[in-house]
Every structure is written in structure tokens, then in C-alpha cells.
Amino acid sequence: MAAASNPGMPPHSLYIHIPFCAIKCSYCAFNTYTHLDHLIEPFVHALMRELQILAHSQPGLPLHTVYIGGGTPSLLTVNQLSRILSTIRAEFALDPAAEISMESNPSDLHVDYLSALREIGITRLSIGMQSANQTELDLFARRHDFVSVIKAVESARQAGFDNVNLDLIYGIPHQSLADWETTLSAFLKLDVEHVSLYALGLEDGTSLKAWVESGRLPHPDDDLTADMYDLATTMLDAAGYDQYEISNWSRSGRECRHNLQYWRNLPYPGVGPGAHGYAGGVRYSTILSPQRYIKALNENTESFVFPRTPATDNAVLVERDAEIVETLIMGLRLTREGIVRQTFRDRFGIDLLDLHGEVIQRYVQLGLVHVDDEIIRITQAGRLLSSALFREFV
């Protein structure tokens, strides 16, 4: 039974970070760890404790989305995931119609497991497809092949999932436009509700960056990467997908509600090792090490001011000017919705054009931004140049 809601608080979104993986992918810079399976059960106990502390510091906190990310959440058993969700339902005012998403590796997904996930309340499944090309999957050190993706989607349908996302990566060393078209075509045949596309980034500490810097692999070609983005935009539009954010497409009504919370710069507490959160006017991150995280939650019995917990590592109060900049940068990623001018005025007491009219009008003249009485949004021509626009506001 959910806790009684606090009617004076806006709906929040909860992010849960699961830091465990079977294999470290060559491109991954997230806070993930391999060969720590023995810590998963102690971690689950600690996570439940962190959820309780967070909820007790803000009784009646309303949640309308939950996102279980990682890492590889599908390494957890159904029992472990069920206990986490039961804690959330007991401690927070969870909307009965909440979107509850879970990231997964295709190789972990079979009908019995997926049916059990549906039973405990997971409503949306995000599967890390990444590519349909085995050479690219091998480069990434992924532990699945494309056949595993096909089987995972089929099993998800059999289990009753009607809201499935696939992640794809483009701009890969040695990847041709034809290779990317093959992956897009393979994706379209799976007929899922949502797709997230990520241009490959060379992140510090990753194997891929080291290979590129050593000359073992070529640098990604920026012009070719832009062509890949344009190709995806054309193919997905022709297939009936709506682009609602720079990197995300969905069937009508299947936008990821949790990620919309981020892009609207609305509150989302984050729990688990290495999670990031923004709530109570504070932007923060948690302890990275699973061992230190477990120890902190087991030993600390103090009271904490929302959204802090014993796992909070860095926390910064977001001043109004910084909140405005963050709201602008994230809101302009929403390709259809953009920034609603009245909503912005209600939140900050000033019209966006009064703040940044000169910059915005310059981009309007270049055809990169659209402005009318109701919204300000980036145009299709401006999507590939969005980073330049965002830098103008910082």
C-alpha cells in the first residue's frame, strides 16, 4: 500500500542505479563494476534502507515514474527487484499508473523472467541492442548478438510488455553509412514503441578511447556521424516514429515519461551507488563504490534533510540563474514541445525572450530556432548544431 501523498508537492521521478555488470563494455564510462556478484544481495538491503531514509525525510513524496538503470539491472533476480519495488510502494506515494522502466541486456531476457517482471509491476522495458552488426557488438564487448535481441523482443511481447525501447549507437569507428542503415532496418522490423539513438562518445577511462588515441582505431568521422543522424531521422519518420527529443523517437503516446522529467528540469531523486539526482533545489551525486555505499547505509543512523541520505557524496544548491540555464538547455532538446513560454514565466517570473532575446533571435534568423507566442523550440536544421546554441546560454 502506497504512502499518503503530500498534495503540496509536484510529482517526482525516482532514479535507481544498479552498478553491477557481467562485462564492462568498451565504450562505457558509467559507474559499473564486474565480478562483484557477491555484493548484489547486500546492495539490495542497503538500497532499501536508502529508499526508506529518503522517504522519511519527505513524507508523502509523490512519484509518477521510476527508472531502474545501470549497469545491468537484469542481473538482479525477480525477488530482489520485487523487494525494491515493494519498498517504494510502502514508503512513497507511488501513482498507481506510474511508468516503471527497467534497463536490460538481451541475453538476460526470457519469457519466465519477463512475465515475472510484469507481475511485480515493471511497465516499460529498455533493451540494449546497440547494433545489428556482430563486428560492432564485438568491438563493444557486448555479451549478446542480434539474434538475442530478436528473441528478447519476442519474449517481451509474450510476457505482455507493450512498451519497449531499444538503444542504438552510431558514429562507430569503421562503421559505414550502409552499416548504420542495416542496423536501422533491422530495428524497424522489430516494431517496438521507442528508440534512443546515441552518437558514440569517447569517454575518459574507456577502452575505446584508449584504442583511438593509440591509433588502433580511427577517430569517429563527425561529418559521417551527422549523415547517420540525418538518415535515422528520415527512416524513422517514414516508419511513423515521432521525434520528441534530439535523441529519442517514439510511437504516438509512448514518449518516455521519466526522461521527460529530466528534460523539463523537474525533480528526480537518485539512489544507488553513483546515482545523480535533482530535488529540493539540490543537484547531487552519491558514493561511487558499492562497498562504501553498503557500509554507509548499514552504519549511519542519523536523520537527513531531503534529498540527502548517508550515500550522498556531493551536493550543490542550484541557484536561480543556474536553474534557468539548465531549464533552457534541457528544454530545447524537446524537439516538439520545446520551452513553453508561459510555463517558463510561471516558474521564473520573466519571459525567456526578455532574458535571451538577442541570442534567440540570431538563431531564428539562421533558421535554427522557431519562436511564436507560445513556444520556443529548436528546428530540424538546428538539431545537429544544438551544442553551439546551448553554449550561448552558459
What does this structure look like?
The chain has 2 domains: 12-263, TIM Barrel; 320-393, Arc Repressor Mutant, subunit A. The protein is 40% helix and 21% strand. It has helices at residues 40-57, 78-91, 111-120, 134-139, 146-158, 177-190, 207-213, 222-238, 257-263, 290-299, 320-331, 341-348, 352-365, 386-393, and strands at residues 12-18, 62-70, 93-104, 124-130, 164-170, 194-199, 242-245, 248-250, 270-271, 276-279, 282-286, 312-317, 339-340, 369-371, 375-378.
Question: What order do the helices and strands come in, and which of them pair?
Answer:
Blueprint: E1 12-18, H1 40-57, E2 62-70, H2 78-91, E3 93-104, H3 111-120, E4 124-130, H4 134-139, H5 146-158, E5 164-170, H6 177-190, E6 194-199, H7 207-213, H8 222-238, E7 242-245, E8 248-250, H9 257-263, E9 270-271, E10 276-279, E11 282-286, H10 290-299, E12 312-317, H11 320-331, E13 339-340, H12 341-348, H13 352-365, E14 369-371, E15 375-378, H14 386-393
Parallel strand pairs: 1-2, 1-9, 2-3, 3-4, 4-5, 5-6
Antiparallel strand pairs: 6-8, 7-8, 10-11, 11-12, 13-15, 14-15
Summarize this entry quickly.
The protein has 394 residues and is of the alpha/beta class. The chain is 40% helix and 21% strand. The protein folds into two domains: 12-263, Aldolase class I (TIM Barrel); 320-393, Arc Repressor Mutant, subunit A, CATH 1.10.10.920.
